[in-house]
Design a protein that fits this description.
It is a single chain. This protein has about 230 residues and is α+β, with helices and mostly antiparallel strands. The chain has two domains: about 25-150, no CATH class; about 155-230. The chain contains eight helices and four strands. The protein has helices spanning about 1-20, 20-50, 55-75, 80-90, 105-120, 130-150, 165-170, 170-185, and strands at about 155-160, 190-195, 200-210, 225-230. A four-stranded antiparallel sheet has the order 2-3-1-4. Strand 2 and strand 3 form a beta hairpin. Helix 2 (about 20-50) packs parallel to helix 6.
Amino acid sequence: MNIQFLFMRELLIQSAVRIIDIPEFLEFVSRFILNVAVIMILVRWLYYTSSKRKDYLFTYILISTVVFLLCYLLESVTLQIGFALGLFAIFGIIRYRTDQIPIKEMTYLFLVIGISVINALANSKTSLVEVLFTNIIIIAITYSLEKLWLLKHESSRVIIYEKINLLKQGNYDEIIKDLQERTGIKKINRVETGKIDFSKDTCILTIYFDSGNNVINVTELSDNEQKRDE
């Protein structure tokens, strides 16, 4: 009886020590706060201010949080590098059924996953200062590319156009003017003609424009998007 009592008491003591492991919990909280702060700077300030895509903003924040928690809580499992590379492989080949992820959005997805893995799996040999410096470098490079160099991104939208008479007459400039007025885009660089349906008097047009030249949120025009660096 005494042996069982001592065993149970020892087990409870070990469990209590594990529950109130304050240094480890503080490290977890500090890493999580750092990760959230860096992700918010990248996706809320740098990305969202230029793209205005709330759907990707929602996705990036949740993916970053889940990846960080998953990596940190499973750090004791002897997967480490293989586990991290597996995450990159899984998320790197994701293609949503409803839409293909544009190149820029895919790059930010890679960023948020990479930062979350770094912040979660940095071992005891890596100091918090080194982890912080790594995050600052990533933010600085992203800021330089997004804000300082002012790289222009050309976006494309696929729309259904009903004024096929203008196509017959070859009024290219008039088509551009009509599309700019109806879409709210200040300047359309070029238009490509796709499938023409004479039974419905419609055709499919692909319009190309600079991302910074839109007045309205042009993401509502179509779900098909391609962005290319000029």
